[in-house]
Amino acid sequence: MEEKLFFYYTNDLHSNFDQWSRVAGYLKEAKDMKKAENQSCWLFDIGDHVDRVHPIAEAFMGKANVQLMNDVGYDVVTLGNNEGITLDHDDLYHLYDEAKFDVVCANLQNVKGDNPPWFQPSVSINSVEGVRVGVLGLTAPFNAFYELLDWHISPPFEVLDEYISELTKHTDVIILLSHLGITEDQEIARRYDDIDAIIGGHTHHLMRTGEMINDTIITAAGKHCAFVGEVILTWDHNQKKVVNKEAYTTDITHRAKDLHTEEKLNDLVVQADKVLQEKVVTLNETIEISWFKDTPIMKKLSATLKEWTKADCAMLNAGVLLDRFEAGDVSLKDVHRICPHPINPCVVVLKGDELIEVIRASFKKEFMELQLKGFGFRGEVLGRMIYAGVEIETEIREDGQEYVKNVSMNGQPLNPDYSYHVATADTFTFGRLLPEVAKSETKKYFLPEFLRDLLAQTLKEEYESR
After folding, report:
1. Where does the 5'-Nucleotidase C-terminal domain start and stop, copy by copy (predicted)?
2. Sequence-distant contacts of 349-352: CB under 8 A, at least 24 apart
3. Which of 3, 29, 53, 171 could be 340's S-S partner, Cβ–Cβ 3.0 to 4.6 Å?
4. Coil, helix or strand for 79?
5. Each residue of 391-425: pLDDT tens digit?
């Protein structure tokens, strides 16, 4: 006798609630249909469901996301870096207190004491006909951030060495919920033959029909839940093994929205507005912003960053502010709307010649006009880099481009061999945006504060009506 096991999943929603009611309708319908047919079906999430870019996630520190997953009927989830490092320790510790689903993450550890009550490395679930399915979770080991919040993430392969052999003794099928990224998923498939399926996320890769490596099927459904994923494993009860593995992703952007979920979201928006209506400052006049010019607000924000981090200088891209502040009362909601990014302050150490190269690169048109997606940035374009603590002399040449002529600090030219502490957004410590910053051997991150916390401080100190 053969039995099909159905696993539906989502990954990397990033609080894209415009799509959520479609997700909810699709998953509830799929699960109800399978149950009516007496077939085994489970719902998984692979992390980064929470993203504080949205007012609902911001106001409730992710707990509203958990409510929404409860309503849909999720069975097992793991957590991503947006759950793990954009909430302070206590908020993450209590994030899943009201969850009606299991939370698995085998490489998460609480440095301050016992792990949360909801925490489990893995769970075992049984099919209608008694197939034992072991579900293990892993998340990306960003310990430079986690350890500042009193968590530790163990290396994934060390954890797998410990748990896979144990799971094989007590389960028939092993599924890994991996918020590690496609490259790590592929390597895991090469190393661990006992894993039947790896359901992935983090790197936002979309795999329409999955990928087979050895005897493991790998899948992921992109980002923002434009697609929902499905894994189908066929178990042969006579042979006592999986005899077929399939994976698909379905575009659900055209589907009708679930009305109950829309009502819940509308209610949460109203509640979030109330939470975020706290006044930050009262402005006598409108504060204008510009992505490609020096503006007073960006100069003052960069200065705040420099002073708050006790750095030698600071640099922030003007694209972090998305809109102007209107005269009158400014609330937490306004600050969040204008600076929604889950970006932390950071200090890196750069030699003088490296800092000069970074400054030169930041004045290039292609840098300022880059439409960045990811690395915490939730804006349109990077914009002009605004500096505090350094004096920069530029000129406009015949090609219309602005070029850096001289850079000095306190009236003296930068020493090429001196190490400067440079405060900036953590965005630039990832990828290849500013290679010198990303390659710096000394990086100090400041958590749990976001740039918008420094923005609120700047508004209070520099703009409060008197």
Report:
1. 289-427
2. 349/419, 349/420, 349/421, 349/422, 349/440, 349/441, 349/442, 350/419, 350/420, 350/422, 350/436, 350/437, 350/440, 351/416, 351/417, 351/418, 351/419, 351/420, 352/414, 352/415, 352/416, 352/417, 352/418, 352/420
3. 53
4. coil
5. 999 988 888 888 898 999 999 999 999 999 999 99
Task: Tell me which residue has tokens 């694209």.
Answer: 319
Domain range spanning residue 184? 2-271
The enclosing domain of 444 has a CATH number of: 3.90.780.10
Residue 457 Cα distances to 148, 152, 312, 345, angstroms:
22, 30, 20, 14
Regarding whether 202 and 295 lie in a shared domain, the answer is no
What would the two tokens of residue 63 be?
């707990």
Distance CA 128, CA 211 (A): 27
Q: How many CA atoms lie within 13 A of 328 on its CB side?
A: 4
C-alpha torsion 333→339→345→346, nearest 10: 160
Provide the pairing of β-strand 385-388 with 391-396: unpaired
CA distance 463 to 454: 13
Q: Specify which residues 126 forms β-bridges with.
A: 132
